[in-house]
Specification:
Elements lengths: L4 E7 L2 E6 L5 E4 L14 H23 L8 E9 L4 E10 L6 H13 L11 E5 L1
Parallel strand pairs: 5-6
Antiparallel strand pairs: 1-2, 2-3, 4-5
Amino acid sequence: MLMTSKVTYSGGHKTRFENIRSGNTLITDAPLDNDRLGQLFAHTDIAFSGLTSFFFSVIGMKARSLELGLENSTAEVSNYIKNELRRISKIHLKFCSEVNYLDKHIKIWDSTEDAYSMHCTLHPDISMNISF
């Protein structure tokens, strides 16, 4: 098995991720509801942002094969936590682009997202809402 990252606990609810291959780092903090300041990414932010990045990669591959550009597209990521369980309950991803894609392209994105459903590795009770 190939190690891809190293995570170090820095104290004060902070961790430091290091990409083994590049040496790039990311520092995280506990979420706002754990008395933190919200100045850094929390672990749930990273889960949602990673999932969004994955969708962009998959949709981007399909867009390239259709000769459609996704450059400078963005996604608004919203997450919802069940407070009583401290568990992710819902993820909402809204993809935004300067390009007005045709309905047929949006159907292709939807089917591409379904074919590479990384989100299925999450708990089955998590509600996913993806819009373009």
